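Hi V.,

Quick status before I head out on leave. The structure for the redesign project is tokenized and pasted below; the design run finished overnight.
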């Protein structure tokens, strides 16, 4: 599949979490054939590319982010033939496939690690990060993201191996050039199969230095990324997105430099992390500092203009549903879902839609026993041990668990929401009878139809891609408004971020503009209804 240079600037990407998208064989787990079955839905929505969370062979300790074979498909998702069919059928509909790659670590069941742990002299031993020591005397006090020490003792070797995530996810040693070349060969193998690009999981952690307790943005990081680029996807116009939790705007400019030496763009999370207590974990909840949200979004829009490229997202497989997080998932679910989508899609960057976002799907209505996520289970155990009450811990889990994004896709109002004929691997959210794709595709006022229009507008008006960003109503406590302006076009985006009517100032440059989009049928001139959004447009030659 050939792509024009910079094609991803006008594209809209749709993320699929395969085990929760569509089951085709009744085993309760979504699969590749299920995705093929739903390609027409994605074509109707209007997206250009599918970001596919990992479907590689895996023990599924971390839902596929623990890969045991990069060049095979996990049987629960299908076969390599199924994968090749998906690439082909998606291409026929003008949709590319973006693979999710984990290059920081493998599963402890990967053949490299199985060999590595046999002997210190084994060829593959140095593929991972090891340190000498004695049992119980850790090399240092570094902690795993999932809790406990980041060092695991191997008595047969009298060594510790390093794992930033699960104990079953040993970190690769990128200082070993043989490791890097193995990974490059694998990536080129997938390129030859016709994929459109890659999302690179926790890529800012590959250049780690455990001695200095450095995990993100290590000293050789950009050296490695530039080599990766030269050896693989940099040879053509592939879409590449690096996940970089620790990135600031200056680092992002390097990652997404227009010279094409590293990635197309990165995922950064500064805006997403604003509703947690500074210096604490994501689970420690705080009210959203709205004015700061505007400042952060403005900073990324202005700093990267002409110097890099933004990814635009509210949701992914690791995050709670945005309509539950910062919208209103009850009285104003439809209105707030539309507002949040429009606010984001009006900015410069490539929009990413996470499955179900286009329906306004909400956080899960789960009890503790319903949760499947390893991070959530570890958090509950650790907080209870630390003396927190069950109620306190569950409040954080209901708000922030990754499983909020992983509930099965809600296709219709039939049993299990049309996701499976069997028992779903994870309980379907109980609101599927009122929130589902079948109902929304025929409702002109639905969230789905609104997202269709957002995508159409982006492709029709160049200002969405080219326009320079200017924040408006900076100090207003309830309105998020901004201008996008190019040489030929002007776009004004006005959002009421909250669930009450609000009057807004009416600057002169808002007047006389064409109302391009709104989430209400009728609007008052100087009043925004709860969660109301408006797009005003003007051709500068008019």
């Amino acid at each position: 599949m050939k792509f024009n240079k910079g094609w991803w600037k006008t594209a809209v990407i749709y993320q699929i979490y395969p085990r929760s998208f569509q089951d085709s064989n009744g085993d309760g787990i979504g699969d590749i054939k299920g995705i093929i079955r739903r390609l027409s839905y994605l074509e109707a929505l209007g997206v250009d590319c599918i970001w596919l969370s990992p479907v590689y062979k895996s023990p599924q300790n971390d839902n596929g982010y623990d890969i045991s074979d990069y060049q095979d498909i996990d049987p629960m998702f299908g076969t390599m033939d199924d994968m090749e069919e998906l690439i082909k059928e998606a291409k026929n509909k003008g949709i590319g496939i973006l693979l999710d790659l984990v290059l920081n670590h493998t599963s402890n069941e990967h053949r490299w690690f199985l060999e590595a742990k046999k002997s210190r002299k084994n060829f593959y031993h140095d593929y991972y990060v090891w340190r000498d020591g004695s049992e119980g005397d850790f090399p240092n006090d570094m902690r795993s993201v999932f809790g406990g020490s980041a060092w695991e003792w191997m008595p047969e070797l009298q060594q510790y191996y390093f794992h930033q995530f699960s104990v079953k996810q040993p970190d690769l040693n990128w200082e070993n050039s043989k490791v890097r070349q193995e990974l490059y060969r694998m990536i080129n193998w997938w390129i030859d199969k016709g994929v459109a690009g890659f999302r690179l999981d926790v890529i800012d952690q590959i250049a780690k230095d455990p001695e200095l307790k450095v995990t993100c943005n290590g000293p050789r990081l950009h050296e490695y990324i530039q080599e990766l680029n030269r050896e693989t996807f940099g040879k053509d116009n592939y879409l590449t997105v690096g996940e970089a939790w620790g990135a600031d705007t200056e680092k992002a400019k390097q990652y997404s430099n227009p010279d094409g030496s590293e990635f197309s763009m990165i995922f950064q999370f500064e805006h997403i992390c604003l509703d947690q207590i500074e210096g604490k974990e994501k689970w420690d909840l705080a009210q959203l500092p709205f004015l700061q949200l505007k400042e952060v979004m403005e900073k990324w829009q202005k700093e990267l203009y002409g110097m890099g490229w933004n990814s635009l997202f509210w949701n992914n497989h690791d995050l709670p549903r945005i309509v539950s997080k910062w919208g209103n998932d009850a009285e104003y679910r439809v209105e707030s879902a539309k507002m949040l989508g429009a606010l984001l899609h009006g900015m410069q960057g490539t929009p990413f839609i996470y499955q179900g976002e286009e329906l306004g799907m909400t956080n899960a209505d789960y009890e503790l026993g319903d949760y499947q996520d390893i991070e959530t289970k570890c958090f509950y155990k650790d907080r209870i041990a630390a003396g927190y009450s069950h109620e306190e811990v569950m409040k954080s889990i209901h708000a922030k668990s990754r499983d909020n994004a992983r509930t099965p896709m809600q296709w219709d109002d039939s049993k299990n929401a049309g996701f499976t004929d069997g028992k779903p691997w994870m309980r379907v959210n109980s609101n599927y009878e009122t929130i589902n794709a079948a109902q929304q595709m025929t409702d002109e006022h639905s969230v789905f139809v609104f997202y269709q229009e957002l995508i159409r507008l982006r492709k029709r008006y160049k200002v969405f891609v080219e326009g320079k960003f200017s924040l408006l109503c900076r100090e207003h406590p309830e309105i998020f408004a901004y201008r996008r302006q190019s040489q030929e076009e002007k776009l004004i985006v006005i959002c009421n971020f909250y669930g009450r009517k609000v009057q807004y100032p009416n600057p002169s440059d808002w007047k006389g503009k064409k109302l391009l989009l709104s989430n209400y049928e009728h609007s008052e001139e100087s009043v925004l209804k709860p969660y109301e959004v408006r797009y005003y447009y003007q051709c500068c030659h008019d």
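Above is the designed sequence. Residues 7-102+177-363+434-452 form a domain with the TIM Barrel fold (CATH 3.20.20.80).

G. will cover questions while I'm gone.

Best,
W.
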